[in-house]
Specification:
The protein is α/β, with parallel strands linked by helices. The protein is 48% helix and 9% strand.
């Protein structure tokens, strides 16, 4: 009978031990679950995708790719716009504190003169603008005189603008003016230089081509095809004509306009105002 009792006691103890283990295990599991939901508990980090899973993922649709990336045309337009704006701003910024000399014949001065409107543009950008004009001034006279060297020595310009040739357009044998054009350009030296050609009010016998071919290193602005509005003498531009002329040269000076405006379809180039 004792053996049977001993066996029963042993079974009882084993059952209690099993129950105790079950209780401990349940308590541990419950605690772990509770901690994962406690405030401030560190969330379980997601497992990274395996290479196999990444390789099997479908590629983005063509519509999604087009939406995500700008089209080449849009990017090109944006770059072009930024480039044009940057070029113009850089060109104007360099004028601050510079001295600009504008010399020439009667096309320069007067109420309808080119220089009046042009000077306002340069001064607005911080440049000092000096004007020298002479009535009936010819290329030959200006080349042979000491006026240009004196102007250069007195004002020390950084930029020189010449408007000459209006009194020479009707003369025969324009090639005789070639050495005089070269002399003027040589006197200006290494300075930045622009020669604004004459509006050919009596027809061009060839002087415009002579100036263009011999003016280097100065840059030539061809005005011969501009439909400028003229005053009562049918020669000099009106105030509106001078302002339009200045606008076209200013665009060329900035790098955004043509060196020969009016050569390609001048209709509508300048309005019909006085």
């Amino acid at each position: 009978m004792r053996e049977v009792g001993d066996i029963g006691d042993a079974q009882t103890r084993l059952a209690r031990a099993a129950c105790l283990c079950a209780i401990v295990l349940a308590t541990s599991t419950l605690g772990a679950c509770s901690k994962s939901h406690e405030p401030g508990a560190r969330p379980t980090e997601p497992r990274s995708a395996t290479p196999e899973a990444a390789a099997s993922a479908p590629p983005p649709s063509a519509a999604a790719a087009a939406t995500a990336a700008p089209s080449p045309d849009d990017a090109s337009v944006a770059r072009a716009d930024a480039g044009d704006a940057g070029t113009a701003e850089a060109g104007l910024a360099r004028l601050a504190g510079k001295v600009v000399l504008h010399a020439g014949d009667s096309m320069v001065g007067g109420d309808g003169g080119l220089s009046r409107a042009l000077g306002a543009k340069f001064r607005a950008e911080g440049a000092k603008f000096v004007r020298h004009t002479e009535v009936s001034l010819s290329i030959q006279t200006f080349a042979r005189s000491v006026k240009l060297p004196n102007l250069l020595a007195r004002h020390k310009p950084d930029i020189v603008i010449l408007t000459l040739g209006a009194n020479d357009v009707f003369l025969p044998s324009p090639q005789v003016f070639a050495p005089f054009v070269e002399t003027i350009a040589r006197k200006i030296g290494a300075r930045e230089c622009y020669w604004i050609g004459p509006p050919t009010w009596k027809g061009d016998t060839g002087i415009v081509a002579v100036i263009r071919e011999h003016v280097a290193p100065c840059k030539f602005f061809d005005s011969s095809n501009l439909p400028l509005k003229r005053g009562g003498d049918r020669i000099h531009p009106t105030e509106k004509g001078g302002a339009d002329w200045a606008d076209l040269f200013w665009a060329y000076f900035q790098g955004t306009g043509s060196p020969a405006p009016g050569l390609v379809g001048d209709a509508g180039l300048l309005d019909s105002g006085n």
